[in-house]
Design a protein that fits this description.
The structure is a single chain. By secondary structure, the protein is mainly beta. It folds into two domains: 78 residues, no CATH class; 88 residues, no CATH class. The strands form three sheets. It has a four-stranded antiparallel sheet with strand order 1-4-5-6, with no helix packed on it. Strand 10 and strand 11 form a beta hairpin. The longest helix has 8 residues. It is globular and about 65 Å long.
Length: 199
């Protein structure tokens, strides 16, 4: 669904790949990951063509809409639902958004089916069988399941982070895409696009 500034939607658009705000946005489509904005120069001034018309740019990527409530003058960090600096139970720095626990401790507290535990990957994939039911081929692909955790701030910018909370192993024939999970371990998105599928 497209959100148009001229229809009254107010807020900021954060580029999740660069950690920077996108200035002068005209519309934003969260489902397609697209937006259109006025083109600006290095000083932030609007750019014009030779006829004096404003130039626009269309961008495709990973963006987040940060709504602005009326009279809200809070900083970007407060709007991003940052989590605690450390998990209150285990001390991990990978806390969930707007939470004081890491994915594994929150999953244990909820007694979730998916343990959401961050584990080291084995060195050799050949010791892992394919996860597809009935397949006895050795796995040659490792696929991660990730959950978004509290962004990290550096040099005045926020950088999104994710923790690998599950790993699946597949042969080439039965490969399945990586997944983004929510804090309950439920699948939000499968990352089948963008060149992740083996050839």
């Amino acid at each position: 669904m497209r959100l148009y500034a001229k229809q009254g939607f107010r807020g900021r658009i954060l580029d999740l790949d660069t950690g920077r705000l996108v200035p002068k946005v005209l519309w934003f489509d969260a489902d397609a990951g697209e937006l259109e904005a006025f083109a600006v120069d290095d000083r932030g001034a609007l750019r014009h063509d030779h006829n004096g018309n404003f130039l626009t740019v269309r961008l495709k990527g990973r963006f987040r809409f940060l709504p602005r409530s009326e009279g809200d003058s809070s900083t970007l960090g407060k709007k991003m639902r940052l989590g605690a600096p450390q998990c209150q139970q285990c001390g991990s720095s990978l806390t969930l958004l707007a939470d004081d626990l890491c994915p594994a401790c929150r999953a244990a507290q909820r007694r979730q089916k998916n343990p959401m535990k961050v584990e080291r990957m084995p060195e050799f994939l050949l010791c892992q069988p394919c996860a597809h039911p009935g397949c006895d081929q050795p796995a040659v692909w490792s696929v991660a399941d990730e959950v978004e955790v509290t962004p990290q701030q550096a040099q005045g910018m926020f950088f999104t982070r994710a923790a690998v909370v599950g790993r699946r192993f597949y042969c080439t024939r039965h490969w399945q895409p990586p997944r983004i999970l929510d804090d309950r371990g439920e699948v939000i998105e499968e990352l089948a696009e963008g060149g992740v599928r083996p050839t």
